[in-house]
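[job 4471] stage=fold_predict status=RUNNING
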Amino acid sequence: MSPKQFPLNDSETKEWLRRVGLLSEEDALRIISTIKFNEDHLQTLAIKVDAVLNPVAGDGRFPSLCGFSLWKKRRSEDPQLKVLYAQQEATRHSNNMLRSLLAPIRRLPSEILSEIFKFCLPREKFIRPAAGEAPLLLTQICAAWRDVCISNAVLWSSLEIVNKNPDTMQIDPDHRRNITALLNMWFSRAGHCLLSFSVQDDNILIKNVAETVGKLAPRWRHLRFNIPEDTCLSIPPSNNYSALETFEIYTPEGLDVCLVEDLSGALLNAPNLWQFIWDNGDRRPSPIDLHWTNLTRLTLNTSINIAQCLTIMSMLTGITHLTFQDITMSTCILSRRDIILPELTSFVICAECSMAPVFEEITLPKLEELVLNIKTWSHSSLINFLRRSRCPLESLNLYFPPLTETELIECLEIVQNTLKEFTVQGTGNGIHSIGDCLLDRLTDNGKDDVLCPKVVVIALYECISCSPGHFARMVESRLTPPSPSIDSDGSSEAKPRPTISPIRVIEMYDNEPELEELKTLQSMGLITKVYSNVDGTPLELEPEEIERLRTLREEGLIRRVYSPTAGTFGDVD
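[job 4471] inference complete, writing structure tokens
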């Protein structure tokens, strides 16, 4: 009999597992035969185990009385059983390895396997190395997968480095050595790919990290840096950042003036930059320069006056998402700029001063999302801006504005044909924007026109002052629209009315008086998203609400969240 006809042993199986590629027909038959051989062996072992546990009556190994065996408990302690059990476990393990050889994925060519590996990467833009996630996990399966993984440069084109202990910002020598080795290994495997690099905590101070930033400048595609206090880090403005598309910088203690100049010089060498985010903890003005006309997304969470704001906006001709998080008053403001941003869809503003000079100058014809975190309310300027823009606004979010109910109604009337959600966060000083008058306009009584007929999400915090039950009745009327009114002659009302979208989600604090009555409407499909009025943390939803919300998201419902600290605004995951 040829040696190849013998069953595979474990050492041969392990060697085959290290390979990649298609099995020959002869090899596949040998594997199948070995599996069958092992299954027969398992049946034989099972018979032997049963013979030890249940010996035939009269077997001399165990005493009996009246035909019944004694000391049955001692049979399970028979040394022979341990040997048999070990043989069973080893045979099962062998079969598991053999079956894995026949798995369909092992038949894939390495080129296809390499493409599949790309879809195993984490969804984040910057990949934090972890033994339990790709790409490192893929190198631990078998030698064949390791070779395919290491040779795929795309898998190693993104990296984020952090401190092991997030509670301390100290960098010990071991950490420095580990980071240096990680950088050398990771980016050496990336070949000539464009790179994404995120440096968190104080790791930018590690010499090798700073050198890597400069050395690989032409290959950076996405960069995110956390710059610690009093750093002497140099960002060479002469480097070529021609491939850089997005840049995020976080400076909790601010940046030295010289560093701001170097940063501006570097960004001016990044002609393809389309997203820039600067989160600056120092509220002193820190003017920065870059190719504004190339940007489509801009977030400036740093002090900027109204004149600078308007100057920058006048150059953002292709911007789609814009956030100014700390606007201050200007001593001199140039007027009549007539700034039109034809592509802007999302606009976020946070300011302590009046925004009238901004809204009097801008026109945003495609605006869909507007977030205003403001302490003063320039009603006429905002109303004129909305009327002038005639934008298809879907999301209106007002945080801490001292506006009256009448002023809010006027705002909603202008955008009511497109509005799908609105948020009002009260000032907490006795000014309430939501009262009986507005609730009457929002209520569907089956006869009168309904304000904002497409609204499906309403978030109200510390801004309601209405008659008991009025708010709940408004919500209920838009959950179950009433039948058309009947005239005295028995005919139904002929006046056509727009379709009223049912309210899906109500958001409010847990201390709102209206909350208890809203809970009774959950059986009608309403989802109440509740937050703590102490720290703003969300309370857990009921399981049926979680499932209902998941279904609504699949049907197209969009819920957005705003971070007053960072100025970020976007869809909830």
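[job 4471] summary: The radius of gyration is 34 Å.
[job 4471] exit 0
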